[in-house]
Amino acid sequence: MSADTPRRGLGRGLSALLGETVAEQPIDPGAPRAAGVRMMSVGHIYANPHQPRRHFDDAALDELAASIGQRGLIQPIVVRPNPHNSAYQIVAGERRWRAAQRARLHEVPVIVRELSDADTLEFAIVENIQRQDLNAVEEAVSYQRLIKEFGHTQEELGKLVAKSRSHVANMLRLLDLPDEVQAMVADGRLSMGHARALITAPDPHALALQVISRELSVRETEKLAKGSKAPGKAAAPRTNAAPGVPSADIEALERQIGDILGLKVTIAHGDKGGTISVAYTTLDQLDLVCQRLSGEPI
């Protein structure tokens, strides 16, 4: 997004798009509607191909469809006009649109907004995160897109979606996991806590399979991951703390810098100085570190 592009209420979610028209009440097609809300044929609406949410649970959609069939939609669907035809693309509310089709509704309430491609993508990502409609991997990918495509820092992202910077950093670390393990998180076989414990393990995929087959808790997974780093050997004591510099302070600095970069950081400190190591797994992550060190905009 260009620096000259005005920001329109980002971080406020759906209320920023709808103004004051959102009301948590069923929308009756025969009743008076709030300003800006109108009925539109479901056939004139299509999904956003860049929608950050990829998984829609069939059982949950059936439940929502049953509710919509009885009570109507709780909130209108936000759409934007397609400049090339008479169709409208969904900005927010794809899940409701899908459920409305299952409920065999011919029309749904919508609010039409003129939005650019960039605004549409950003609103869709922020809205899904604020609604907690994304699984952990989808949320992590969304953060990555907001950083790469819109130049947000982790701190800005935290404010945008009402999360802590450390939460954003921890979510981004999930993308360091192998694709197979990310899929296990996405489909619910592994929790966020399990995934975080496996990030620094030598073979996260093999350990993930053990965690699932043995139904291990997060604490048990943490022990399993630590034991896999040096089989048959006792963990070596930390030697990076110089006299007068507690190891706990070094570890706190590692976490702080790691949260800023979204990567694993290790500090080896001695009485004559030391080194800072940043672990990365992709060229995109390396590029991000280089841009931060050079002061270039991200």
UniProtKB/TrEMBL annotation:
SUPFAM superfamilies: ParB/Sulfiredoxin. The keyword DNA-binding applies. SMART domains: ParB. Residues 222-246 are annotated as: Disordered. It holds the Pfam family ParB_C. One of its GO terms (cellular component) is chromosome. GO terms for molecular function: DNA binding. GO terms for biological process: chromosome segregation; positive regulation of sporulation resulting in formation of a cellular spore. CDD domains: SPO0J_N (cd16393). NCBIfam families: parB_part. Belongs to the ParB family. Involved in chromosome partition. Localize to both poles of the predivisional cell following completion of DNA replication. Binds to the DNA origin of replication. This is Chromosome partitioning protein ParB.
